[in-house]
Amino acid sequence: MSRVLGSVRARAAAGATVVVALALIAAGTAVLLVLSSKLQDQARLQAEVAAREVASQIATGKAYDKLELPDGDDHPVVVTGDKGRVLAVGDDVRAVDGKPVGGAKQGAGSAVPPGSDDDDDDDDDGVQLKPGEVDDEVDYRDGTANVDGTVADYRFAVLEAKDTRGAQATVRAGAALTPEQDAVGSVRTAMLIGLPLLLVVVAGVTWLVTRRALRPVEGIRGEMAAITASTDLSRRVPVPSSQDEVGRLARTTNETLAALESSVERQRRFVADASHELRSPIASLRTQLEVGVAHPELLDVPGAVEDTVRLQRLAADLLLLARLDAGERPADARVGLAAMVREESSQRVADRVPVQIGELAGGEVAGSRSQLGRVLGNLLDNAQRHAVSAVRVAVVRDGEWVVLRVEDDGPGVPEGDRERIFERFVRLDDARARDDGGAGLGLAIARDVAERHGGSLAVRTGSVFELRLPVAD
Question: Which CATH class is domain 333-470?
Answer without folding.
Answer: alpha beta
